[in-house]
Amino acid sequence: MMITRKPVSLLLSALFGLYSLVTLANPTSDSTHVVAQPAHEAQAVVHDSAHAEEGHLEAAHEVKHEGAVNEKVEVDAFIEHHLQDSHDFYFFADGEAGKHYGFSLPVILWDNGLKVFSSSAFHNEKELANVDGNYYILVHGKIYKSDAEGTVSYDEHHHPTNVQPLDFSITKNVLSMLIVATMLLFMFISLAKSYKKGPIPTGFGRILEPLIIFIRDEVAIPNIGEKKYRKFMGFLLTVFFFIWLLNLLGMTPIGINVTGNIAVTVCLALFTYLITQFSANKDYWGHIFWMPGVPVPMKIILAPIELLGTLTKPFALLIRLFANITAGHVVIMSLIAMIFVGKNLAADLPISFGLTLFISLIELLVAFLQAFIFTMLSSLFIGMAVQDHHHDDHH
């Protein structure tokens, strides 16, 4: 696939035009969830003694107020907290005052009926919410049913065994996807309206048009074909801008890690898989189950392998996107943590800041590349499924 210089230059201009903030600091609470349990429960005692991480986090929190930093515990907890989803949206925190600035998100549960309440109900020393006589407790970002004492039972692997209600909550990642979806609607509706005024778009449409032309001329047409590409342009444009904007949003100080969530990448890859399979023609299925020009015994052997190959393609899509974005966030946050681990601002600050800025600039490129690669591979898989095969009978 050839990429001409003109679209590439326009893409680079748009990329740096959208670049706003490169810092990935995600100021979140480093306090931990304290699970209140009855003293007579032996399982709770076993958990408290075996699950040392929670105790380390509490100790690190106490030490922090004295001016020291427990490097390994706090850095690991901070990175883990950043990579995970949450029921609250924090902008920043004031560690000295113990205040957090942000807002709570709605919790939507199905537990013998619909339960809707704010996640601020969990903000007490037991992390326990009382909703219509039902008690729910928040453990490691997940909601479990409990009792008035906040009892949590654990298995031998220290996983909670309490009943989990169906959770349809608007979490931080869900809110971010809704925001990006709204942005996409606004962008493309504005572009469509600008075409009614004339053949040349105005305003922000001048940035969108070369990107759309790039996806059409360099991705969709070469991989799918000029006769069939229009049917899939809506999906390709949506997935490209959706992933790209989410990646850029993750580069801001609010620290959203949507595309680093394996559930999100699985859903995106699943859409590609379903569109590919339901759009496939008879030649595509014929090459999977009954390959032409192959001896019958080999056809029987190769058919399950070819069928498995249809699953490995979307799997490669979701792992590529998930691993690259997650790795980039971990590297940047680890470089920022060097300042606190080294405890030497004069030596560590310039090095850490320089490396963080360098990696952040690379992450801007990765944010675009991952959206482009996902879109390009999706169009390639769709093109393989819809292309017409011509078999010559000269043998």
Structural account:
The protein has 395 residues and is mainly alpha-helical. The chain is built from 11 helices and 8 strands. It has a 3-stranded antiparallel sheet with strand order 4-3-8, with no helix packed on it. A hairpin with a 4-residue loop joins β1 (88-94) and β2. α5 (172-197) crosses α7 (233-249) and α7 packs antiparallel against α11 (345-386). It is globular and about 70 Å long.
Give, in order, the helices and strands.
Answer: HHHHEEEEEEEEHHHHHHH
Quickly give the structural class. Answer: mainly alpha
- Low-confidence region ranges: 1-69
Q: End-to-end distance, in Å?
A: 31 Å
Percentage of β-strand residues: 5-15%
* Average residue pLDDT: 75
Shape: globular
Helix content estimate: 55-70%
Strand order of the largest sheet: 4-3-8
Radius of gyration: 26 Å
- So how many helices? 11
By DSSP, the count of extended strands is 8
Largest sheet: 3 strands, antiparallel
Layout of strands and helices, then pairs:
Blueprint: H1 5-18, H2 42-50, H3 52-64, H4 71-83, E1 88-94, E2 99-104, E3 106-110, E4 114-118, E5 128-131, E6 134-139, E7 142-146, E8 166-167, H5 172-197, H6 205-224, H7 233-249, H8 262-279, H9 282-289, H10 296-342, H11 345-386
Antiparallel strand pairs: 1-2, 3-4, 3-8, 5-6, 6-7
Helix pairs in contact: 1-6, 4-10, 5-7, 6-11, 7-11, 8-10, 8-11, 10-11
